[in-house]
Design a protein that fits this description.
Cofactor: [2Fe-2S] cluster
Bound molecules: flavin-adenine dinucleotide
InterPro entries: FAD-bd_8 (IPR013112), FAD-bd_FR_type (IPR017927), Fe3_Rdtase_TM_dom (IPR013130), Flavoprot_Pyr_Nucl_cyt_Rdtase (IPR001709), FNR_nucleotide-bd (IPR039261), MRET (IPR050415), OxRdtase_FAD/NAD-bd (IPR001433), Riboflavin_synthase-like_b-brl (IPR017938)
Structural class: alpha/beta
Domain FAD-binding FR-type: 200-301
Distance between the termini: 26 Å
Number of helices: 12
Oligomer: single chain
Radius of gyration: 26 Å
Order of helices and strands: HHHHEEHHHEEEEEHEEHEHEEHEHE
Membrane topology: Multi-pass membrane protein
Shape: elongated
GO molecular function: oxidoreductase activity
Amino acid sequence: MLVIGYLAIAAAPLLMAAAQGHPPRAVMDEIASGLGLTAFAIMLMEFVLSGRFRTISARIGMDVTMRFHQLLARTAAVFVLLHPFLYATPLRLHPLPWDSAGLHSLGLSEASIATGVLAWILFLVLVLTAIFRDHIPYRYEAWRLGHGVGALLVAGLTLHHALDAGRYSGDPVLAGLWVVLFALAVLTLLTVYVVKPLRQLGRPYRVRSVRPVAERTWELTIEPDGQHAFHFQAGQFVWLNVGHSPFSLAENPFSIASAPTAGERVEFVIKEAGDFTGSLGNIRPGTRAYIEGPFGNLLLDPKAPGIVMFAGGVGIAPMLSMLRQMEAEGAPGPVILVYGNRSAEQIVYREELDRLAEQPWFRVIHVLSEPPAAWDGLTGMVDAAAVDAVFEYGAKPDWLYALCGPPAMLETVEGALLKRKVPARRIIAERFRYD
Ligand SMILES: Cc1cc2nc3c(=O)[nH]c(=O)nc-3n(C[C@H](O)[C@H](O)[C@H](O)COP(=O)(O)OP(=O)(O)OC[C@H]3O[C@@H](n4cnc5c(N)ncnc54)[C@H](O)[C@@H]3O)c2cc1C
């Protein structure tokens, strides 16, 4: 349904342009205009795709939503890149008086050329800086602010260019569509940067505790500052803001490690990875916090005959939530956790996992890439050998397979599971990085 809706909006400008009944021009001119129209429609819908709306992400997952956002932006960038160069008809400043249909020349005002060129450059810069974000010496929050403001600027410039220069976009119906889509984009930004923070302001949290639980890994616990219930399902994640105004962009996604049955207390397991995560040790109990969410489709299936979890490093966080939930409410069947780490010091909540492993429904398989001398568990990476091990322990293709860890691990394990005839719909995963 979502895909049909998306395709309908993306195709609408082309269909509206075709319905205008202009006399045909050179094929390359029509292709150039078509690319421009489609790119603008994609561009405007990018705002909605990246707005973290649960109506969208709850159905296809946040990582898939973000992947679509990236792929569509790249597609639009190719269209935008080609758009000005494909016109076969020469460009003139202002249309020829006797050629109102624009068959023999493209008449553009100085203003529409200026907005078109600026939007063209800025859009390509936006896409390139997103692709090469890790190589840019700016903080993630600065990049995100620039990305949002830049996107709005591109949309505004393109709107002017389309309405002023467009042979088809000058038509009131298509012009109306552009204005509606542009308004939707602005509304999305207002929702993300004003409405959602205002809602968070009325539902503050405070830090209850911060403590180290393994090498460069922390447990952070927050609780509501005032009475309000937070409903989530085991395996979901939130955007967490600690110590900043909800209007700031200082927030990061983290899986919830506590179970929904733990009450109002919300617990995270966080690995140091950059600015915020590297300063967790400085956070004091009582510090204000805000959350947005919950999001995520890494969810338990109560009908699953058995569950296998593959966790790499801090990818254990959502699995802990699910295991704790199952301990409180009962597991649907046998559960096997494959937990990969570099060294034994990085294993978090080892005692809790060992205690849980005394229960008949649960088994944990540790995998270490740098094992100590006396290690008798699996060694190396969590890969096809680990998948073989869980099948030796009795896993079946119709069980539920939950994956969370580094992208390489997810790909390897998923590939090995598919080879083992596990249907793709029985494999669920959470990616800790949207790239
Ligand atoms: C769905 C999801 C769940 C996650 N759960 C956990 C978890 O339970 N435990 C854990 O340790 N890590 C988790 N992560 C990873 C964690 O979000 C990053 O390590 C953290 O944001 C890094 O922030 P920083 O300020 O320390 O580093 P930075 O240097 O600011 O960021 C490093 C990288 O983290 C990512 N990142 C930073 N801020 C954001 C943001 N606002 N939105 C999206 N990505 C961002 C970007 O890829 C960035 O390049 C999760 C990530 C995702 C997407």
